[in-house]
Each structure stands twice: as C-alpha cells, then as structure tokens.
Amino acid sequence: MSSITTNAGDSHGGGDGHDDGHDDGHHEHPPFLAHHFDTPEQQYTTGKLGMWVFLGTELLMFGGLFCAYAVYRNNHPEVFEYAHTYLNKWWGAVNTVVLLVSSFTMAWAVRAAQLGKKNQLSVLLALTLLGGAGFMIIKTIEYRDKWEHALFPGKFNVYNKNYTGTHTPGEGHGGIEHGANVQSPATDNAHGGGAPAGESAHDTGVGGKAVVKSANLMTGPEASPRSEGANTAPQGPAPGEHAEVIAQGKPTPGPANPVIYFDPNSLGAASDAAKIVPKAAGPAGLATDAVHAGEHGAHLAYADLANRDKVRINTFFSIYFLMTGLHGLHVVIGMGLIAWVLVKGTQGIFGPAYYTPVDLVGLYWHLVDLIWIFLFPLLYLIH
Amino acid sequence: MSVISTPNQFESPAKSHEPHEQHYLNHSKGFLSWALTLDHKRIGLMYMVLVLIALFLGGTFAMLLRTELIAPGPTLMADKAAAWNLYNHMFSLHGAVMVFLFIIPAVPAILGNFVLPMMLGAKDVAFPRLNLLSLYVYAFGAMFFLYVLLSGVIHAWTGTSLPGGFGLDTGWTFYTPYSSTKSMSGVIPATFGAFVLGFSSILTGVNFVSSIHTLRPKGMGWFDMPLFLWGLYATSIIQILATPVLAITLMLLITERAIGIGIFDPALGGDPVLYQHFFWFYSHPAVYIMILPAMGVISEIISTFSRRHIFGYTFIAYSSIAIALLGFLVWGHHMFTSGQSALANVLFSLITFSVAIPSAVKVFNWVTTMYKGSIRLQTPMLYAIGFIWMFSIGGLTGIFLAALSVDIHMHDTYFVVAHFHYVMVGSMLFAFIGGMNYWFPKMFGKMYNEKVAVFAAILLFIGFNLTFFIQFVAGSQGMPRRYATYPVQFVSHHFWSTIGAYVMGASLVIVLFNWVAALINGKKAPANPWGSNTLEWQSASPPPHDNFATAPVVTDPYYLDRWKFVSDEEGWVLTDEAKAALAAGAARTGRAH
Asked: In this structure, are residues A21 and A39 in contact, taking their beta carbons and an 8 Å threshold?
C-alpha cells in the first residue's frame, strides 16, 4: 500500500503522466498496469470507484424487489403472515451464519493479499468459496422442499388459481421445520398454552404486536359472518381436529403431527367440511379456525385467511423465489469470481502493490452478504 | 490519367513527412481487430453502425404508422381488423425500438464513447473491456427486438406464431395487465431485449462515471471540464440509478406473463399501478438520459460557433445535475389519471414544474452565449439553433402537462405525443445529428459536403415542425393517441402530419447519404475545423490509436481566442500568443474567466 501511495505522489494525472511516463521512463510500467492508466494508484482508485458504482446499481435492482415486497405485504399482510411459516427459519439462520463467516474469511483474504501471503490467501479464498457452496447447498435443500410441496412461484404454486398439479393446499406447512423438530408454530404456541384463550396473545412475547394485529384482522368485516360458528369453538377439539388444537395453543395431546394443520388423513369425518380445498370448506370449519387464531393467534392458519387471500399465497412464494433466486444467482457469480482470484492468487501476482481484484471481489461478496442480511428477516422472521 | 496522377505528385511531398499516416482506423486491420478492439473510438463507431440501423428501423415503422394515419379508415390494408392490428404493432415497435435502441444509446454510446476520453486527454475509458462488453450486450439485446420483428412478419405472412408471440402491440410502455395477460404479441422477447439493453446502458454509465472521476488530467478540475462531460456525467448517474429498477421491473413482468406470479395482475391480488410506478421510476429519468447528453452537445456547439466563451458555465454544469436529480422525483406525473392519491398528484405536479428551472437556465445561457457572438451558421450550429427552438417548445408544453387540471384534459392525446416528440426528436435527434456533424471530421478525418448538410438540416427542421406542431392542435381538440383512425374533423391535421413525416424521412436519408459520400470522397479534414478548444481538437483528424501523439495541454475549454482560422484545408490553428504562452508553460493556468 505504501509503495502505491508514493507512486501516486510522484506524478498523477494525464497531461504530465503521458509526457513523463513515455519520454523519460520516469516510472516503470508494472505488468498489471493497463496502458491507459498512469499510475497503479490511479488504476486502483478507478477500479474501486467502478465497483462501488456497480454495487449501487445492484442495490437498486434489489431495491425494486424490496419495493414489490413492501407494497404486496402492505396490501396483503395476512398472506405474508401465513405464508412465511412455510419457510424454515433455522435453515435461514444457519445460512446467515455461513454467509457471515464467509464474509469474514473474504475480508481476511483481502488482508492476506495486501500482505502478499500467497498460501494464506489461497486457504482463505478456498474457505470463502466453501461458504458460498454451503449456502447454495442449504438453499437447494430449502428449494427442494418447496418443490416437493408445490410451493413454487406463479402457476406452479399449489395456491395459484391456475395450478394444475396434484398437490393440495396446506400440505408441507412448516416444511423441514417439522422434520427437524425445532421451532414449529407449535413451539410458539406452547408458551401461551396454559393461559386463558384471549390472554395468550399478550403472553407470546416475540410475536405480541403481530398477534394483536391478526386478532384485529379477524374481527374485521371478514370475520364477522362467521361469528355464528365462533361460539362453537371453545367446546373442545374433536378427535379428528388435532390440527386445530395446535392452532388453539392448548397442550397437544400427543406429539404426532405437531405442525400439519390440514393433513387429510388426520382429519376426521366431523371436519370433512374443512378438508383442504378452501372453496369446499364449510362456514363452521372456517369460523372455528378464525376464532382460534384471533384468540391467541401466534400464527394464522390457512383457514383463517379470507378466501381472497387464499389464492394469493403463491405471490409470497413468487416474491420469495425472485428475491432469494436473484440473490442465489449473485452468490453463484460471486463464487465464480472468487474461484478466479483464487487461481490468480496461486500464481502469486498479488502483493502490496497490486491486490485490486481481491479487493473488488471482496466488496462484491460483502454486498451479496448484506443483501441476505435483509432478506432473512424480511422473509423468514416476520410476524 | 494525367488528371489523376497530378494530385498524387502534389501530395507526395506531404506524404513523405508522414509516410503512412497512422490513425485509429488503420492502426490494425482485419475483422478481429475491430471485433475484439478495446479502443473506445472503434467501439463508438461500431455502436454508430448498430444504432443507425435501429434508427432506420424505427423510422420505417414511423413512416408506416403515419401512412396508416394519412386518411381515416384502413389505409395500409384493405381489411379493417388487419390494418388496425398492423397499426398497433407499428406504433409499439416504433416506440420500443426508438427508445431502447436509438435514443438512449445514441449520444452517450456513440459520441460519448468517441469523445469522452479525448476530452479528458486520456487514452481510453476507465474500463475498456467493459466498454466492449457493453457493445456486445447491446447487440445481444437488439437481437431480441429483431426476433420480435421477424415473428411479426412471419405471422403476417404465414399465420404461424413463433415461440413468445408475434410482433409487439402493447406500446413501448408494456402496461399491465394487458401485456401480462391478454396480448398475443412477443412481450417476453421484447421486454427481455430491453432488460439486456439496460445492462449495456448501466455498464456504459459505470464506465463514464469512473472515467470522469479518475482520468481527468492534471489541471482539469471538475469545473474545467467541457460541458458535454457534465452532460454525460449527469446521464451516467441516471443510467446507474434508474436502469436497474427497469431491469427488475421487466423481470417481474416477464415472470408475471410466463407463470402468473400475481404482483401486477389484479385478478391475482396484484397492483397494476405498481407496474406503472416501477416503469416510470426508470422511464421518466430515462427521458433525461436522452436529453442531458444532447444538452451537453449543444453547449459545445453553441460556444464554438458563436466564438464566445460559454455564458454561465457553472450554472449549466449544476443544472445538468439538478435535472438528473429532480428527474427521479417526477415519475408520478405519468399517472395523474391512474388513480394516484390527490396529494401525490399535487406533489408530483409541483416537482415537475420545478424541472423547468434548470432547463430554462440552460436555454438562457445558450441564448446569452450567442448574444453579440460572431455566429457562423455552419451545419452543427443550425442543428443547435433548431434544438433551442424545439426544446423550448417541448419544454414549455411540458409545463402544460404538469398542470394537473390541464393534464386531465390532455392525457393520452396527441398533445402528449407532440410534446415528447419535440423533446426526444426535435431536441435529442437534432443534437445527435448536430453532434455527429460536429465530430464527423474528427471521427473520420473527412469533411462532408456543407451545402448538402445545410439543406438537409433546414429540411429536417421544416419536416419536423410540420409533423408535430399540428399534433398539439389535434391533441388539444381531443384527438387521442394510439388510435388507428379518427373522425373527419382531424383529417387535415393527420394529412399534413404525415406529409411532414415524409419530409423528415427524406431529409434523414439525405443526411445519411451525405455522410456516406463524405466517407468515400470527402475532403481531408483539418485537425481543428471549427476552432473549438476542447482537448479532442488538439489531436489529428482522425486521431492516432492512443488518441494523442503529444500530450494535450489543458486550458479553459471555452477559451476560443487561442485559435485563429487559416484556411479550409488547415482549419484553425493556435494564435502566436497562444503558442508563446504554451512555450512559456503559462497556458496551463491561463484561464479566460
């Protein structure tokens, strides 16, 4: 770094640079210096500025998606509140850690390049690459789960009006969360489990605000026609209704299927009406759900949603896939760039005088990380 | 035979000084030396070829749609439905091709690429490889539009539809939900093409911003830059900040149409007005992408051909930035009738009015620069004066449209059509052709025929005003845009408008032939044919591969008194005083203001 600054001090700028540089060979033209730059310092500043400007364009591109997210969530808050529970926040958290660690190794790699530590640079870049790969593998696991339950964007989504596949709405709710047996909606509910219905909303802590909100939603005009059925709700769960039991937050009788709300097999004849297909759901079935969610509402159940929102759930997944997909594409591109500087690094061309590519790839990688830092809470952790 | 050999004898002594005059055009030969070049000048020329093809295509569509409108009822085809359908495709393709393939890249990618590094006294742009990439990205994006065009032609002839639909009938704005659901046309290939073209635009913007920041030579501070660079800088900011939003918008539109994600489709809970917000968040600033570099060109031409230092340099420079920034805050004025809140309408209306201030600052400064100047009405100056005239009309009618109550009446009428054609064609096209005529000698080392060029400029001016001024009248009387037919009261409006379009088309053909003729047997251009003082004129015409044989000396870019006219062959040369000052090393700091 120091050698660069001294160079820059000597002769910076085109007019003189052209003269002096070519006439008397005042400063040497190192191999990495492009012909149209006068000094390594100028080249470095230019590259860095260009990268920052480019990152600005990246932010704005994602900005469009964040904007779409904000508008759609504002227009249909219940859709988001319900649909996001399909995402596995633990995989999301693990991925966040993976990316953060890879950002750390990347930053360290830049330092190693500056110091010209060739081997250290290679190891750190390899670790960063590994982090990227780990992120993509986890993302693939998550995507595969969505794929298996037909939770892809648009008409490939089971909730879409035009869906033609064989999957049914509601299945796969909780996704891998279920398999991992951690942090399911049921866990949340357990906190408020013993409290009287209606009070639990305040006891759930984390989700307090959202809970109140959802309760309000359900007492709105949408909920009112169902009040008739609501009275029947507290009468206790029928044997086949354990899905609703969970929604009520009462201690679950058995650990079986703690998160599957609408498993067709577990629904008894009594709740046939509520069977999956929203249009076929009887008013009573809807009403009980609505009230349960309203009472302690840690999470909306599918049946709690207004009919018009049920067909909009796919849009959450469209936004989810567009955002994470575009982000994943950036991760892959970043991995390609890291592999490229890794190869370059093994040739030993980086050192105190020249480390621009490592630095710029690092900047890019941090941006990819940063975007994920926003995506994770917005998509996985909302209430 | 002797007639031919005589000039050779005269030329031979001159040639002995420079046996084979090396310049960027003959620096290296062969297809690959062009296809893989990193030279900004060659890239600029390749852009020129592609962009002029786009102009030709867009112009052809314009001729066809004006022909359809020459009389009410079906004109191009006997069958009503077919004629209307053809008209829809023509106006959509005209708009999309002109905006995305011609107007946006024309001045920055051709003139900017060629001139920007030279004005900086640099050897190239900051990222030459990125520059070449953006050219190829442009070509790649353009191919999608060609595909759309081809699919339309094939469908018209054979009735078969290529994958993705045929033609384009959504208008260049691709408004949802029509574009995402009902349209049978090639919305996906067209929007994907625009998506790709956006990246070309972004890369050029990144390149220019970086170049201007870091490649300025010693002695050239920000406020010593030629105003064309300020124009390009402001443009690049918009390209960088707005284009990514268009990219993501078009991506959303494509997925919406392909698989129905439901963000814009009201039937799926989406918001079609959101699309309009997204679209105009890019496309209104894009209007300034089109006009700001054009304004930069005009600043150069006006000063040079008035032989006066530009008046109010800093005001012009700042007003470019002001227009760029304000341009981001006015997109809602495209949606006064789309059901925005009244408050939003009022705010957008107010901010839109405020854009008039920096625009007027520029016009005042240009006119004041001309005041008491020794004006030479050469071709570039004719275009510049035409620009001031038409930009004033286009800008002032924009004020009409910014007024809420007036806009309710004028919205989607020919008044709007006339307004934005005055800005985009009357202003931007005039600045582009004026700039091309201004830098043509530098680019090719040849002089075009001045008389023919002047004739074409005047003809273009007449044709343009004939085409579009009458559209203000038609629009204010209620003629809606994008209609293939009209009631009898508009017959004469449309007839004369179409005649004007033909005149425009003819004059553009003359311009093009004049350039081609100059390339074939134009007189050799001097290094400085106009007496300008920006750095590119200190180099030979055409410039050598590295732009400058000797490093250019930075002075005030509008210190025109350094140059005196010698002859048509030698052009303008430095005065003895300027040479003496140069020898004394004083020119570096000698500023005129």
From this structure: no
- The residue behind tokens 């006339």 is B418
Q: Number of structural domains, chain B?
A: 1
Number of structural domains (chain A) is: 2
Domain extent at residue A360: 40-152+315-380
Of A278, A74, A84, A288, nearest in space to A185 by CA: A84
Residues in B 197-216 with any Cβ partner in A closer than 8 A: 202, 205-207, 209-211, 213-216
User: Distance of CA B165 to CAs B101, B161, B481, Å?
Assistant: 21, 6, 24
Nearest-neighbour CA in chain A from B470: distance (Å)? 39
Q: Say if residue B258 is exposed, middle or buried (CB neighbours under 10 Å; 0-12, 13-18, 19+).
A: middle
Phi, psi of B308 (to 5 degrees): -135, 145
Cα–Cα nearest to B120, from A57, A46, A32, A29: A46
Residue A33 maps to a domain: no
Q: How far apart are CA B63 and CA B507, in angstroms?
A: 13
d(CA B190, CA B174): 9
Domain limit, last residue, from A269, A293, A310? A310
On the question of pLDDT at B21 being above 50, the answer is: yes
Q: Would the pLDDT of A278 be above 80?
A: no
A232 and A339 in a common domain:
no
State the DSSP string of B427-466.
IIIHHHHHHHHHHHHHHHSEE--HHHHHHHHHHHHHHHHH
Put simply, the chain B residues between 260 and 279 with a CB less than 8 A from any chain A CB are: 260-263, 267-271, 274, 278
Which residue in A53, A156, A163, A333 has the most chain B C-beta atoms within 10 A of its own C-beta, making it the best mutation to test that interface?
A53
Q: Is residue B238 part of a domain?
A: no
ipTM computed for the complex: 0.87
CATH number at residue A328: 1.20.120.80
Let me know whether A64 and A193 are in one domain. no
Is residue B576 domain-resident? yes
Q: Cα–Cα distance between B512 and B52 in angstroms, integer?
A: 9
Asked if the structure places residue B578 within a domain, the reply is yes
- Rounded to the nearest angstrom, the gap between the alpha carbon of residue B281 and the centroid of all alpha carbons in its chain is 20
**Residue B349 — very low, low, confident or very high, per pLDDT cuts 50/70/90?**
very high
Residues A120 and A260 reside in one and the same domain: no
* pLDDT band at A298; cut points 50, 70, 90: low
Structural domain boundaries, residue B581: 526-593
pTM of the model: 0.82
Give the C-alpha distances (Å, rounded to integers) separating B317 from B129, B143, B314, B361.
29, 37, 5, 10
Tens digit of each residue's pLDDT (9 = 90 or more) over B238-259:
999 999 999 999 999 999 998 8
Q: Which of A20-24, B40-44, B154-158, B353-357 has the lowest mean pLDDT?
A: A20-24
Residue B497 lies in a domain: no
Give the span between the Cα atoms of A165 and A162, in whole angstroms: 9
Residue A1 lies in a domain: no
